[in-house]
Amino acid sequence: MNLKDALVEFRYYLRGDKNVSKATFAAYEKDVSDYLAFVSKYQKKDDVRDITANDIRKHIESLKRKNLEPSSIARKLTAIKSFHTFLMIEKYTDYNYASVIDSPKKQKKLPVVLSEKEIDILLKSIDQGTEEGIRNKTMILLAYSAGLRVTELCTLKFSNLRLEQRLLNITGKGRKTRIVPISIEAALAIDDYLKNARPFFDKGKDKESVFLTREGTTINRVTFYEILKEACINAGIKKKVSPHILRHSFATHLLNKGLDLRMIQELLGHSDISTTEIYTSIGQEHLKKTLAHHPRARKDK
C-alpha cells in the first residue's frame, strides 16, 4: 500500500476503531503525516512495506536536530508506533519495525506552580467591574480550584454543571469521565458569571458552552492562555505561566495539605498514579487526609 492511501486508512482507523478525541486525532494525523512525508522525501520510500527501523530512526534523528524536547519527540513516536500497529492489524505489513524503537528519555522537570499567596493575589487583581473581568476571574478560579485541564475548562457545558451539589461532571483525556467537587467560592463565582456576565457575551450562537468570547463563540485554549498571561502580568507575577500551571498548583496545594495521592489522582483524572507522583517532589508538608483541605476551602467559612 502506498503511503498516501495508508494515511487515509489510518484516519478511518483512529476515528472508527479507536474513537479517539478530536485533539488526539489532530495530533496523530499531523505527526504521522510529517513522518510519511520525511520517509518519502528523504528515504525515497513510497510503500509501507518498504519502511524499516532505520527509516524511523532517521526521522527521530531529524526531530532531534530541530531541538525538539524529548517529551515532544516521544509523543510523535507514540503516534508513529500507533500507525505501524495499525498496519500490522490490517496486514498491510509483515513486521512492526516501530516496536523496536525506544522512546527518548524524558528529562524530569518539576512543574512550575503558584503559591497559595500568588493565587490570592492573582484573583484579587482581576477587575470585577466588567463582564470580561467577571468571566476571566471565574475561569481562572475554576481551573485552579477544580484542577481542570485547559480543554476541559474551555469546553465546559451547562450539562456539566451541578452547582447545587458543588460538583462538575468532567470528560477528560480518553473520554474518561470523572466527578470533581468545587468550593462554595467557585460555585458562587460561576453563578454570578451566568447571571451577570454571560448574557453580555451570548449572541445566540452557542447555547451549550459556559464560557464565551465577545463574539459569542466558545473560548479556545489560546484565548484563555492570553487571559491568564495578562492577569499574571497585572498581578506582578513573574513566573512563566501557562493554563496548566493552575492544575499543577491545585495538585501541589492539595498534597501539601495532606490529601492522599490516590484521591488527587482521581480528581486530576490521571489513569496512572506515576503521573501524579511528580507532585510529591514539589511539596512535602502532609497534614490531614481530607477533601476539607481543598486549596480554597478556607474561603468557604
Protein model, in words:
The longest helix has 21 residues, at 22-42. The protein has two domains: 3-100, DNA polymerase, domain 1, CATH 1.10.150; 116-300, hpI Integrase, Chain A. Residues 284-291 have low confidence and may be disordered. It has a three-stranded antiparallel beta sheet with strand order 1-2-3. By secondary structure, it is mainly α. Helices cover 51% and strands 4% of the residues.
How is the CATH topology of the largest domain named? hpI Integrase, Chain A
Shape: elongated
Average pLDDT rating: 88
Number of strands: 3
**CATH architecture designation of the largest domain:** Orthogonal Bundle
Intertermini distance: 65 Å
Compute the number of structural domains. 2
Radius of gyration: 22 Å
* Count of helical stretches: 13
Instruction: Just give the CATH class of the largest domain.
Output: Mainly Alpha
- Enumerate the spans where pLDDT stays under 50 for 5 or more consecutive residues: 284-291
How are the strands of the largest sheet arranged? Answer: 1-2-3
What is the element string, with H for helices and E for strands? HHHHHHHEEEHHHHHH
Summarize the biggest pleated sheet. 3 strands, antiparallel
Fraction of residues in H or I helices: 40-55%
